[in-house]
Amino acid sequence: MAWFLLLCAPLMFGWIRASELTFELPDNAKQCFYEDITIGTKCTLEFQVVTGGHYDVDCRLEDPDGTVLYKEMKKQYDSFTFTASRNGTFKFCFSNEFSTFTHKTVYFDFQVGDDPPLFPSENRVTALTQMESACVSIHEALKSVIDYQTHFRLREAQGRSRAEDLNTRVAFWSIGEAFILLVVSISQVLLLRSFFSDKKTTTTRMGS
Amino acid sequence: MGYVALESLRMRSARPTGSVQMAAVRMQFTLYLVFLLNIYNSFVSSLYFHIGETEKKCFIEEIPDETMIIGNYRTQLYDKQREEYLPATQGLGMFVEVKDPDEKVILSRQYGSEGRFIFTSHTPGEHQICLHSNSSKFALFAGGMLRVHLDIQVGEHTNNYAEIAAKDKLTELQLRVRQLMEQVDQIQKEQNYQRYREERFRQTSESTNQRVLWWSIVQTLILVAIGFWQMRHLKSFFEAKKLV
């Protein structure tokens, strides 16, 4: 019983996670996320702006003391790895305060520690067989494939949103320009007509 | 704690006779242990953020079809007296709404201060998961913010391997291979979705191309036609005025 609880303990504290979220950041807004991290854990923060304006955002990462570990302005994509120097709540914020009217969609992936093992630490005491280590290396390779796929998907989403934007803009602009052309040409003619109408009355008055 | 009692009972009742049985018992025990730990999984603090009383927070998940998503959340309310965040009161719940890419609501439910929502996508695309608190009384929040711990697992990550191993009675190697198979399945689905998205992108670009081409021709024709009309109209106007 005691042995069972002893096994549980190290796995329960400093539980390791990866959080991946995509959210919308309205203009002049700031969104902060917090996570409690134990000392010595290797963490990675990756973010990418998916849609909106010039596709850039301000990012800032602070440790529990308030020391800024990472600060970048107007960045489109970045990846930052750090090791937690102390226990506590780490905070990272994305800011769109420099933008006046564009909403941004931001994706971030915050990985804390390594992935939880498929089996508890009991099996790590004995060495892995060749088959098992082959499986582990394939698993790691597939994880990086999935990661690349995600980044590709985000970039493609960015390209696609720009293309759709362009398409609607072209449609509106062509209708708008046709309308403007007609209005301008008709008003030109009417204006010219009005010039000549006035002159005629003044010349007759002068004559008499 | 009930699980721990169950475990000790199992250990005592299973009397291993041979080394093989011993290994089998150890294996089962290991799996139950992992199962237990996965229970703890959902209650451990993860990423959190603050949400205002009437604020609605939305998250976007762009996923292929037939993908399962499991979301876990836990809320805490700021207690002014103790100046810390404590688990929220009973009356406070969160309203979870999930919309599919066609803006159709596929999940719209109210959960308590702690909840777990699961849904499977039927169309590929951007799904929107929105959360907001169901509180209408300002007194509950006392001008503070609600702390929401959120964890969203997509696709392969939703699989509970301990459960699968226990149900299908898989050895460690078989479980690892199973995990690899799930991962490859997810990659394949994503690639398929990628092909569909690329097709949409190509259609949009071709539509823009056509529109630009069509518009330039029409604009030239309009200009020429207007030019003719203007000259003809003015000529007849001046002839009528006996100026030409």
Overview of this protein structure:
The complex is a heterodimer of chains A (208) and B (244). Chain A is α+β, with helices and mostly antiparallel strands and 208 residues long. Chain A has helices at 2-12, 122-125, 130-207, and strands at 17-25, 30-37, 42-51, 57-62, 68-75, 77-83, 88-95, 104-112. In chain A, strands 1-8-3-6 form a four-stranded antiparallel β-sheet. In chain A, strand 4 (57-62) and strand 5 (68-75) form a beta hairpin. In chain A, 16% of the residues are buried. With 244 residues, chain B is α+β, with helices and mostly antiparallel strands. Chain B contains five helices and nine strands, in the order ααββββββββαβαα. In chain B, the strands form two sheets. In chain B, strands 1, 3, 4, 7 and 9 form a five-stranded antiparallel β-sheet that branches. The longest helix of chain B has 69 residues, at 172-240. The relative contact order of chain B is 0.13. At the A-B interface, helix 1, strand 1, strand 2 and helix 3 of A face helix 1, helix 2, strand 1, strand 2 and strand 9 of B.
Brief descriptors of the model:
heterodimer; A: alpha+beta; Jelly Rolls; 2 domains; four-stranded antiparallel beta sheet; 31% strand; disordered N terminus; B: 244 residues; alpha+beta; 5 helices; elongated; membrane (chain B); coiled coil (chain B); GOLD_dom (chain B); Transmembrane emp24 domain-containing protein 9-like (chain B); transmembrane (chain B)
